[in-house]
Amino acid sequence: MATYLMTNMRLLKTFTAVLLIALAPFTQAETEWLDKVVAIVDDDIILASELDERVQGIQANIARTGKQAPPEEELRKEVLDLLVLENIQMQMAKRYGLRIDDEELNGAVARIAANNNMSISQFQQALVSSGASYLAVREQISREMVLQRVQMGNVNQRIQVTEQEIRNYLQSSEGKEVTSPEFHFSHILIPVSSDATDAESKQAKAKAAAISMKLRAGKNVDNASDNISISDLGWRKGTELPALFKDVAAKMNDGDVSEPLQSASGFHIIKLLESRGVKQLVKQTRASHILLKPSAIRDESQTIALAKQLRQRALKGEDFRELAKEFSEDIGSAQEGGDLGWTTPGQLVPEFQEAMDETAIGEIHKPVASQFGWHVIKVIERRSKDVTDDMRKQIARNALHERKYADELDIWLRKIRSEAFVDIKI
């Protein structure tokens, strides 16, 4: 039971389960009664109505799965413990000044609706039809988001993933499976029966060769006119491919068509439609810039004028590096002659990225504004870098972090529970 409730609380990573709670039937007691305090938690309280509502929601979710709910007394105790933990974290969030703004909340609601194949209006209608309050559901989603951020903020700093752990993981069978390249193939089989004559086998081979050549020439084939069966193998990990395809797949680029591959069942032709994780290349740019910031001493128009002047001086032959050292107000790059080193798309602010991308090597872009000020940008060189190993390491780092997160979260939750003042009244 405790495991079920902890899982319920960890719905923080996905919001879909919020819908289940929201749609759970809730019936108020026919007899009105005064609410009472069931627990005091530091500077806050938990009311009986909160406990009853959560218990009923969880009971409905358990019933929906077809499982047997535990005795109510045991369930209420477990749920109260859960509410105490949530209350402690919500008080921490309040002290941090943590809140979810409307834009973030609207985005979360939209994702929940999409995960349940609904538009936002359909989602709202589903709630209304079930007797649930849309505003109450938004409040629950906001609460889950706050809890997630409190936990991540406190638990992530307790987790360290070392380079040795990453290397060990990548060498493990699990690591090889997780980071294995993925391939999307279409497949054609020219069948050969087990009792086929040599002539029939040669005929099938010749047909397979002709189809392979036709595809490699960029021509189309179809089931009817070519009397073949084309199937889509979907996305498959390299480790999941048939042995016949593995070695060939590793040497293919997207769009490539194989020579006929023979097996006991006949001749196979595969076309690599697309791949992931085989070789990841990113375009990088090395640029320099001069940053000028408007100030009380130099207003916006004067700053623009100076930026234009410095660009003209560089275009007439003055050393861009020396100009950057003298005039640039970017303390991080000025002493390096404005050199920003190699950057990848998305690393720089959009305005800078766009201007840099449209500038040829060796040329200087006209002054462009960003949130930091006015930039004069010179593109030094470009390259394509293979980041496959970096990508595999990041996948490994994420997997190890995820594994440690669950353990550290449990430890942290026990810690904050033990440090809090909690007075249970029932």
Automatic annotation (TrEMBL):
The alphabetized UniProt keywords are: Chaperone, Isomerase, Periplasm, Repeat, Rotamase, Signal
The record ties this protein, via InterPro entries, to: OMP_Chaperone_SurA (IPR050280), PPIase_dom_sf (IPR046357), PPIase_PpiC (IPR000297), PPIase_SurA (IPR023034), SurA_N (IPR015391), Trigger_fact/SurA_dom_sf (IPR027304)
Q: Does Chaperone appear among the keywords?
A: yes
EC number(s) given by UniProt:
5.2.1.8
Q: Indicate the principal place this protein occupies in or around the cell.
A: periplasm
Query: Domain named PpiC: which ranges?
Result: 180-274, 282-381
Q: What is known of its domains?
A: The PPIase activity resides only in the second parvulin domain. The N-terminal region and the C-terminal tail are necessary and sufficient for the chaperone activity of SurA. The PPIase activity is dispensable for SurA to function as a chaperone. The N-terminal region and the C-terminal tail are also required for porin recognition.
Can you say what this protein is called?
Answer: Chaperone SurA
Q: Which organism is it from?
A: Zhongshania arctica
